[in-house]
From TrEMBL:
Organism of derivation: Neoroseomonas oryzicola
Family indicated by similarity: Belongs to the ABC transporter superfamily. Spermidine/putrescine importer (TC 3.A.1.11.1) family.
EC number: 7.6.2.11
Stretches assigned to the ABC transporter domain: 3-233
One GO CC term on file: ATP-binding cassette (ABC) transporter complex
Keywords: ATP-binding, Cell membrane, Membrane, Nucleotide-binding, Translocase, Transport
Protein name per its UniProtKB record: Spermidine/putrescine import ATP-binding protein PotA
SMART domains the UniProt entry points to: AAA
Reactions the enzyme catalyzes: ATP + H2O + polyamine-[polyamine-binding protein]Side 1 = ADP + phosphate + polyamineSide 2 + [polyamine-binding protein]Side 1
InterPro entries in UniProt: AAA+_ATPase (IPR003593), ABC_SmlMolc_Importer (IPR050093), ABC_transporter-like_ATP-bd (IPR003439), ABC_transporter-like_CS (IPR017871), Mo/tungstate-bd_C_term_dom (IPR008995), P-loop_NTPase (IPR027417), PotA-like (IPR005893), Transp-assoc_OB_typ2 (IPR013611)
Gene responsible for this protein: potA
PROSITE patterns according to UniProt: ABC_TRANSPORTER_1, ABC_TRANSPORTER_2
Length: 350
């Protein structure tokens, strides 16, 4: 493993910011830490960077224990939300800074700075000052500065947070391409689940100083290990029912079949909104109920329907639409709702 975090505990007085975190990041991997505000993401990143010393646990980089090593000894490149470029230095001087610190020869600095600026598509911007650049360009300079010295690990803490949506999407893809091309081992922090799904090889979902689950985006989305992960990553219907003899009775839908090995007792089932069908499309589905359309939201390529179930409770359906499709249902209308049992996922814990 390029980066291994083992049993990290960090307390601030009564607050347990990190409550025993284990994490491995492979060489060339893009791993995202996703979690709500206050879950401990930044504290974890700072511990890896060397700005925080943990109360317990170890940080290994390339097999070497760096838990107590100062940041400059760790060979880690970093980009934060708020640019943090040196305002009085030109773009080229900003990018050259890590190489100057390492006392690299002048020709090497010139060559590497030019190459880094080319990689972030800012050739010809070397003489400008940061304030003469847009927010997105400044973040690209910060990225060039973070990679110019060939770091062993790249740390990104909400680097697109201050940018508008269009620019953020463009930079997300740009960073991803660059990261793949250079095979940079990357630890990325965000609270934006969509961003995590787009960027990552794997996602680690954090809550209250702990990692709830780690896995590829598709796995976490389809098979969340906890209620928190199911809820935090994507939109979800969490249906509480009672399991008995490989089926569960769910209010509004009656008995639905469960996978083998499911013990009897209370069970929480995840049903993603896109698994639901309504009105005529529901007829062919093995599991069916009925509900009243409480709200419809048109989203262009899809529509979102909030439905009040006959048995009490609500579910959210997401229906994909073709341009020629009529509206799927009107508010106030009562419609059939259906789904296939293989789209149910039993949420294991919590
Ligand atoms: N220096 C500090 N002193 C006291 N408490 C701290 C300190 N740094 C972090 N904390 C607390 O530790 C917890 C985790 O904070 P952290 O900044 O790591 O969360 P986060 O997930 O990065 O949040 P955000 O997304 O809002 O940045 C919070 O409860 C925070 O208030």
């Amino acid at each position: 493993m390029e980066l291994s975090v083992k049993g990290i505990v960090r307390r601030f007085g009564q607050v347990v910011a990190l409550g025993g975190v284990d994490l491995d990041v492979a060489e060339g991997e893009f791993l995202t830490i996703l979690g709500p505000s206050g879950s401990g993401k930044t504290t974890l990143l700072k511990t890896v960077a060397g700005f925080e010393i943990p109360d317990e646990g170890r940080v290994l980089l390339g097999g070497e224990d760096v838990t107590l090593a100062p940041p400059r000894r760790r060979d880690v490149g970093m980009v934060f939300q708020n640019y943090a470029l040196f305002p009085h230095m030109s773009v080229a001087q900003n990018v050259a800074f890590p190489l100057e610190m390492r006392r690299r020869p002048r020709e090497e600095i010139a060559r590497r700075v030019a190459e880094a600026l080319r990689l972030v598509e800012l050739e010809g911007y070397g003489e400008r000052l940061p304030r003469q650049l847009s927010g997105g360009q400044q973040q690209r300079v910060a990225l060039a500065r973070a990679i110019v010295f060939g770091p062993r690990l790249l740390l990104l803490d909400e680097p697109f947070g201050a940018l508008d949506r269009k620019l953020r999407e463009a930079l997300q893809l740009e960073v991803r391409r660059l990261q793949r091309r250079l095979r940079l081992t990357t630890l990325f922090i965000t609270h934006d689940q969509e961003e995590a799904l787009i960027m990552s090889d794997r996602i680690a979902v954090m809550d209250k100083g702990r990692i709830e689950q780690v896995g590829p985006p598709g796995d976490l989305y389809a098979r969340p290990a906890t209620r928190f992960v199911a809820d935090f990553l994507g939109e979800s219907n969490l249906l509480d029912g009672a399991a008995r003899n490989r089926s569960a009775s769910i209010p509004g839908f009656g008995a639905v079949p469960l996978p083998a090995g499911q013990p009897d007792g209370p069970v929480t089932l995840l049903l993603r909104p896109e698994a639901l069908r309504v009105a005529a499309d529901a007829a062919a589905m093995p599991c069916r109920g009925q509900g009243r359309v409480v709200e419809t939201v048109f989203l262009g390529q899809s529509a979102k329907l909030r439905l009040a179930l006959d048995g009490g409770g609500e579910v959210l359906a997401r229906l994909s639409l073709r341009p020629s499709d009529p509206p799927p249902a009107r508010e106030g209308e009562t419609v059939a709702i259906g789904f296939a049992p293989e789209d149910l996922h039993v949420v294991p814990r919590g």
